[in-house]
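User: Let's play a game. I give you a shape written as tokens, and you guess the letters that built it. Ready? Here's round one.
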């Protein structure tokens, strides 16, 4: 093959972005980790999910989530606008928009997503090249403490989240990587190593 043909075919295979999916029991500290990673790695884009859950104090529409009504969410499902969606804790719908992510990857932009376990499984099926990272809380006792301290959930919601967490802990083996969040800086470094190594991967 001539040199020019080789370089043309290289151009045709412009680098596609990687998709890093972070999931784990609620209270594992994954949101804090994800925020810090996004701050420190400017090459990572954040996929803002859609949700029907009410906005919490301090949250901003379009930054933390796209807050939409049940009717709007159902309309988006019917139109096939989600890469994945889930009914989380049997309470509210959460979903990842499809088009934006596809465009970003095609442009070579790396994307970070935070979803529940069901969402991570759907993404594995729909985007087999996605990298799945499981964030483990230090222990169930610590998880319980974190959920209580957060003070955003009712005792009933906490019980529900803990039951979900117990089930989710067993799912770590379905993921590509697991990072234990016992110490935030160490866990953050773990995430950075994973993203760094995946960017150097030759074949996906
Ligand atoms: P929270 O209400 O605390 O912000 O999030 C509740 C749960 O919904 C978390 O486990 C979070 O990972 C999950 N979640 C957030 N966005 C999405 C999404 O787009 N898809 C799915 N499947 N889960 C999501």
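Assistant: Ready! My guess for every position:
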């Amino acid at each position: 093959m001539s040199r020019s043909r080789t370089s043309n075919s290289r151009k045709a295979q412009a680098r596609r972005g990687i998709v890093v999916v972070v999931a784990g029991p609620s209270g594992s500290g994954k949101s804090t980790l994800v925020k810090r990673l996004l701050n420190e790695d400017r090459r990572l884009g954040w996929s803002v999910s859609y949700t029907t859950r009410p906005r919490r104090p301090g949250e901003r529409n379009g930054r933390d989530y796209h807050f939409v009504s049940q009717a709007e969410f159902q309309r988006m499902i019917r139109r096939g606008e989600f890469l994945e969606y889930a009914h989380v804790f049997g309470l509210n719908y959460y979903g990842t928009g499809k088009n934006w992510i596809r465009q970003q990857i095609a442009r070579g932009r790396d994307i970070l997503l935070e979803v529940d376990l069901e969402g991570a499984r759907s993404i594995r099926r729909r985007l087999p090249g996605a990298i799945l990272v499981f964030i483990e809380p230090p222990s169930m006792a610590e998880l319980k403490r974190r959920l209580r301290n957060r003070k955003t959930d009712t005792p009933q919601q906490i019980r529900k989240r803990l039951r979900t967490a117990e089930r989710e802990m067993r799912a770590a083996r379905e993921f590509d990587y697991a990072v234990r969040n016992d110490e935030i800086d160490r866990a953050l470094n773990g995430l950075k190593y994973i993203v760094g190594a995946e960017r150097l991967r030759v074949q996906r």
